[in-house]
User: What shape does this take?
Amino acid sequence: MLVVALVISTQTTRIRTQALSAAGREARTDTLYQLARRLAGQNGVFDLVRTASSFAEEVLPCEVVIFFPDQNRITFSRRSSDLLPLPRSEESLAQGVFETGEKAGLTTKVSKHASALYLPLRGARQVVGVLAAIPKPPAQLDQEQVRLLELFANQTAIAMERSNSHHAAEEARVRMQTEEMRSSLLSAVSHDLRTPLASITGAASTLRSQGERISTETRDELLDSIADEAERLGRLVANLLDITRLESGVELRCDGYPVEEIVGSVLQRMDRQLRNRPVETRLPENLPLIYVDDVLTGQLLVNLLENADKYTPEGTPIELTAEANEDAVVLEIRDRGPGFAEGDERRIFEKFYRRNVKGVRGVGLGLPICRAIVEAHRGKIEAFNRLGGGAVFRIHLPLAKQS
Assistant: This one.
């Protein structure tokens, strides 16, 4: 009977142990699932380590700090916590854990009198950081808690490695796009700089070498050519400077301005350029003031009118209209040119994109500058084909604030 009782007691103990072990595994699984959910909502490495540290402290009786490397060295300055609950003297211990990939400190044989347990954050390819767990007195870390911390460290490391890989891939993509843009810029600018310079040089050389032998009419034509090409060259340089300034975050100097005042100034400025085509304006007398930077808004209209002049047959009209709605003044520039090919309505606002129209020169910056100006004003610009042929550019600009 005694033997039977011992057997039953042993089996009961084993069943209880298995039940506790199963319950422990289930609890760990649920905890790690909750951690995975929290980490999935974070993007940057810093947000990841803060989330992981905070969650570990919720489920374990300890403070948790995660350190990540700076130029392949662990520094206590790069950490998940605002405060440092560890002595600076243990920084070398954390570095050792980072280098060897082995835990150290409390509950281990390496520096067991340290103030924390240091665990490596070991990813699939390398160690990406170090987790330090400092027990809250009088608690001590038991084997189950250490095991859970190790699982925390592994899961956090995988998330950090994934974030680092995504960041590296994004940097590579940006570098590639920058290189492509640089190549496009050099190609476009070199061509568009050489062409007017060649014309200016040729005309100037002719005037210098044959000035006394050519007619007054020819001399005037050469001088006009020099002036036109120099003006075109100036616009190209101005566009390059404008797009750089706008993309770097220009500070707007906004105030309330009458639409007709800005339009009138622009048309006066472009009088010579638009001399061979009619420009029809329809501006209602009761238009409210618009809250804009008048210099940039003037440049916006100049670029749109130049675009219409460039892509439409000489002598065809350009229309400029305006009307007000509840929160904006809507301006439209309409022409009777060839309009847009399918898909061009959006692409024309991309830098260095040029429509394939024979005989039209340009570097492809005028319309991207227009978009940048409008977006800086929190407005909207769109382009579409006009019924009966031609193109329409529609701009929404904010109204002036009512006093």
User: Anything to note?
Assistant: The chain has nine helices and twelve strands.
